Model the fold of this input.
Amino acid sequence: MNFRTVILLSYLFLSYNVLAQPKITSLYGLVAYYPLNGDAVDNGKYALDGKLHGEILTIPDRFNKPDAALWFTGNQSYIEIPHHKIFDLNQFSVSVWYYDSLSLQNPILSKSSLIDEDAAQIKNNHYKLFSSNVVDSTNEQRTKGEIKFDMLDTNSEKSTTYANKVADVQMWHHLVVTYSVRETKIYIDGDLARRHYINKNILNPQNPGPLLIGASFIENQLSQATDTLFRVGALDELCIFNRPINDRDTRNMHKRGRKKIFTKKTINVKAKELLIKVWDDGQVDEDTISLLVNNRLILENHKLDKEKYELTIQLTKTHNYIELKAENLGNIPPNTAAISISDGKSERKIELSSTYEVNDAVEVIYIGNN
Done:
């Protein structure tokens, strides 16, 4: 049995375990579930379908599955979901996978209504969820990748929650925002990034405005809508719940929705600066890969051949993971690559293999010069 056959059988087993996990539609308290597989169909039991507006593209999702996510171009691109009484929530959660470009205009979700369009006066409570490069009400520039969640009541009492954790742009991330009585939580990639206590319950569930995905108005200090922002970036698997998702639910949703990582080997290194080489050590078959270190992209869409591609990385932690992501499966699945890691004193070679469902990884432990 050759190397590729062994790897393929191993990943078929792992992929079965991934597919055997509970469906999103079986989760308690689900109000709406939008897979965003080229449309705005709600796969939840209430069938609250939306309508696509403007220029929205269908793209591969985080597993590289074709036509399985939506890219909002910013050209008046958004999804409009008519109001339904099921959206009259006094507590809720939003879960979504998102990918940000470097644009300043990155609303994810908003819900509001106006007294009249001439005055553009905001009526009833609203909430807005943004990601990446947001400018707050004082025109203070926020950090790239920072999450912002706004709520406003009919008396213009406003609550703004920023996440303390910054998520890298140009990468897929899982975001959960929950609201319950006087408390907002923001989770990024399964971890609690911010817990914000609110001095009053400001969310009025009676809001007849539509739910917008990928668009939001911005308002001045008089609570007047002055402009509309349109998203530039991707969204996938947006869920709305009628309850605050707890820590365990969030971790499980993140784990369910991301690729499985298979640690192929663990090595110790004595230096933080490492020389990485990657190449195709078998039959060259058009494999294209990306490399990540601790979930940070260091090499993107690299086509493998016999020539070794070199790059230098700097470790920032004691325990680190170098991960091989398959951008395709080549002519002979799965996607395989040889990688060598040198700390200046020794060099180790490891054979890695990845599919769309599972990534191979090397655990790299920095032990110093002991």
In short: The longest helix spans residues 3-19. The domain at 22-257 is CATH 2.60.120.200 (Jelly Rolls). Confidence is low (pLDDT under 50) at residues 11-21, 115-119, 133-142. DSSP finds two helices and 26 strands in the chain.
